[in-house]
Write a structure and sequence with these properties.
753 residues, 69% helix, mainly alpha
Length: 753
């Protein structure tokens, strides 16, 4: 930027109205540094200061240094946009820019395809937080999808322009460059990228023709789009699978990913501080404290929209100013006004960069590309290239500002050089870099065993980002390890819990730490984990149950945590003696129909009741209740077998177990032939079964029974063999072994644990 400002300052002035709204954006963002009104203190701030003892100062922004860093970045972005608008780009310069960016994006697509094909990665291209396969130079694949869409528009325009200028060689080169972009769009699997790709090309084809639309033009445009759409349908199965969620509608897709909930929660957050926002850089922690829709799988670090993001952090007036500036840029500076503005080729070039400039802003409605320096600065340059040079401007101000841009360039050069040197030397200048460095130092000190120094380092980090939840969690764990009082550690854990109100796993990790140092304090953390993440409540509570053997003092507290049938059943499983009797009685009073328990859990409950409680009572209840007996019949059958009533046990099991569909494969071969086949293949259960069916059909019941016994001891025998064996044995009156065969059949049917 500094080189551009020094070597080529803006050569034309900009509409004053537009300038006013552009300058108003960073000025309104400064409202976050005003003193906080005592009559409009948000609830989360009151809770942090009064209940958790976190001092946030007297300004609107709770983290001034972080907000100042974000404000500087915003100012630099606005200045760059103004600089690009002040350039009076010539037609040839626009053409060169289109050709250059079309080739560069094609090269990026080729590199991304190569990395994907050879399963390699570039660390710079992937964020450390990324958990899924990435594609392209952005941690967010949607942003690369937008870049590919821009490249496709520029590539088609460069191809068309080259053929118009009688240069087929370059035209073919640019056309070939679109191919890797299309392939990258398919491999990227970004639904937003697909929509932007086809919408961008369609809009360019609709606006690029400077003459009256002819049938030939329409036919060619539709043919190209249909060919691309056909290729997408044939080869884009991975993306099509991502489109089919529920009924496949866009609204359903957005809802299924939680975006609607995030949008609504963001609007509620904006309503808490509509005029000044919460300060740039503060969305993440404040949103976690104010959101109502909870997603236990992921935390929202942004509101899935650049516009909502800016509105929540800088306030409604700031976003309104941005919106007015965007409208002026689109309609007053856009190249799609009168067709007499420029020559047909000049207008087509202007429309090309104009359509390309719309892609990232359009995406920013439901995504956050313009919060990244790459997409933001590139979009500003495209806007400058598309600027309408026939718009009536104010009087030139070049003489008044002739020294402004070079001086600004030198200042930005000094800033950039200092940041570069600081990065290369491992120093930290910006607040975020200082915080990251302190966090890394604290982690290193903890690994090295110097926990006291690590604790002090986290204290320093808290002065920069007092709303960073994990620093309080780390500080609390260090206090436990250093022998601080439980109350001091609990204060930091409480701060972390309030600042991060989504993850149950964080509370579970806290409970694990407490059980190492002071188990009773782990109960509230475990309760919070269960409340936050109901999908993992069973696993969380099961872990707590396993701790009761080494920490019996928490047994009653663990019992109080069992508020659902599933959790109460877990507690019953770990109880014995009089405690089991009282817990069972309490359970049956609360859940007389055993609602909320799975069939397998019901059976286990009846088994525990029989083993640890009153066997006569559970047997009588099962005899009287047909619905209970449907799941608990094995208990009755086992009891009958223990009493020597194997016929009763067999009969009960035969009634309730599902009957297999075991039938002969063929019946046209003689018994002797099948006998020889089984002798030649003694480990083949199917051959033995064929012989069994033939013997049974011929009336050789003794031989059939002997064959079936031989088959039952083979490996990988079908479960139905034991059912058939049980029936054969029952027919002979051998109910003892018939019952054993049915037990084996039931074990074979049971799902793996």
């Amino acid at each position: 930027m500094s080189l551009c400002y020094v070597l080529r300052p803006p050569s034309r002035s900009i509409n004053r109205v537009l300038l006013g709204f552009l300058f108003a954006v960073p000025l309104l963002a400064l409202l976050a540094f005003l003193p906080l009104s005592k009559t409009s203190v948000p609830f989360w701030r009151t809770a942090l200061e009064t209940e958790h003892g976190i001092a946030l100062g007297g300004l609107v922004t709770p983290q001034p240094w972080i907000t100042f860093e974000g404000w500087v970045a915003l100012v630099l972005g606005i200045i760059w946009l103004i600089y690009c608008l002040g350039q009076n780009f010539k037609r040839q310069e626009i053409r060169v820019a289109i050709q250059f960016f079309a080739l560069v994006i094609a090269i990026l697509a080729v590199i991304a395809i190569g990395l994907f094909w050879f399963k390699r990665e570039i660390p710079l291209w992937r964020g450390e937080w990324a958990q899924f396969a990435y594609f392209g130079p952005f941690p967010n694949r949607n942003h690369f999808g937008g870049l590919v869409a821009i490249g496709a528009v520029l590539g088609f325009a460069a191809t068309f322009d080259a053929f118009q200028r009688k240069n087929p060689v370059m035209g073919c080169l640019y056309a070939l460059g679109v191919v890797p972009m299309f392939v990258a769009m398919l491999l990227n699997t970004s639904r937003m990228g697909v929509l932007l790709f086809f919408a961008g090309l369609g809009l360019w084809m609709a606006l690029a023709n400077s003459k009256k639309y002819t049938r030939a033009w329409i036919a060619v445009a539709l043919s190209i789009l249909l060919i691309l759409a056909s290729g997408f349908i044939i080869f884009g199965s991975r993306i099509l699978d991502r489109f089919h969620i529920g009924d496949g509608s866009i609204a359903n897709i957005i809802s299924s990913e939680g975006r609607i909930g995030i949008y609504l929660d963001t609007l509620r957050m904006i309503n808490l501080s509509p005029w000044a926002g919460v300060g740039l850089g503060n969305f993440d922690p404040v949103f976690s404290m104010t959101r109502e829709s909870i997603d236990t799988e992921s935390r929202a670090i942004h509101p899935e929209s650049d516009w909502l993001w800016l509105a929540s952090e800088a306030g409604v007036p700031c976003i309104l100013s941005s919106l007015v500036a965007a409208i002026i840029l689109t309609f007053a500076y856009g190249p799609w006004g009168s067709r007499r503005i420029a020559s047909s080729r000049g207008r087509r070039l202007g429309v090309t960069v104009g359509v390309a400039a719309l892609i990232y802003p359009a995406q920013s409605l439901v995504d956050t590309p313009l919060h990244g320096i790459g997409p933001a600065t590139f979009t500003a340059l495209l806007i400058g290239l598309a600027g309408n040079r026939r718009l009536p401007d104010v009087e030139p101000t070049a003489k008044k500002t002739s020294a402004l841009w070079p001086g600004l360039g030198i200042a930005i050069c000094a800033l950039g050089a200092s940041l570069l040197v600081a990065s290369l030397t491992g120093s930290a200048i910006t607040p975020q870099e200082k915080f990251d460095q302190l966090a890394n130092d604290a982690a290193f000190l903890k690994r090295s065993g110097d926990r006291a120094a690590a604790l002090q380092t986290w204290n320093k980090a808290a002065s920069i980002k007092p709303l960073q939840w994990n620093l309080y969690f780390e500080r609390a764990s260090l206090k436990l390890e250093l022998g601080y009082s439980s109350q001091e550690a609990l204060a930091d854990f409480s701060r972390a819990r309030y600042l991060e109100q989504t993850f149950g796993r964080m509370c579970m990790r806290e409970a694990e730490l407490w059980f190492l140092y002071d188990p009773p304090y782990g109960i509230p953390a475990l309760r919070e984990a269960i409340l936050r993440d109901s999908t993992r409540a069973y696993g969380f509570y099961h872990w707590g149950i396993t701790q009761m053997t080494t920490h019996p003092e928490v047994r009653q507290a663990m019992r109080s945590l069992a508020t659902t049938p599933g959790l109460q059943f877990l507690y019953l499983s770990a109880s014995t003696g009089t405690e089991f009797d009282s817990a069972l009685k309490e359970f049956l009073v609360k859940h007389p129909t055993l609602e909320g328990l799975k069939p397998a859990d019901r059976l286990r409950l009846f088994q525990l009741w029989y083993e640890r409680g009153d066997p006569a009572e559970v047997l009588q209840r099962l005899e009287d209740n047909a619905e209970w007996r449907r799941d608990g019949w094995p208990v009755v059958a086992e009891h009958r077998a223990k009493q020597g009533d194997f016929e009763g046990a067999y009969t009960l099991a035969h009634v309730h177990l599902p009957k297999p569909s075991l039938r002969p494969l063929s019946g046209d071969q003689p018994t002797e032939t099948l006998r020889r086949l089984f002798l030649l293949n003694p480990q083949d259960p199917l051959a033995g079964l064929e012989l069994y069916w033939a013997q049974k059909a011929a009336g050789d019941f003794k031989g059939a029974q002997a064959t079936l016994r031989e088959v039952s001891v083979l490996k990988q025998v079908p479960p139905g063999v034991f059912w058939e064996l049980a029936e054969v044995l029952a027919e002979t009156g051998d109910y003892l072994h018939a019952w054993s065969a049915l037990q084996e059949y039931a074990r074979k049917l049971a799902p793996p644990p």
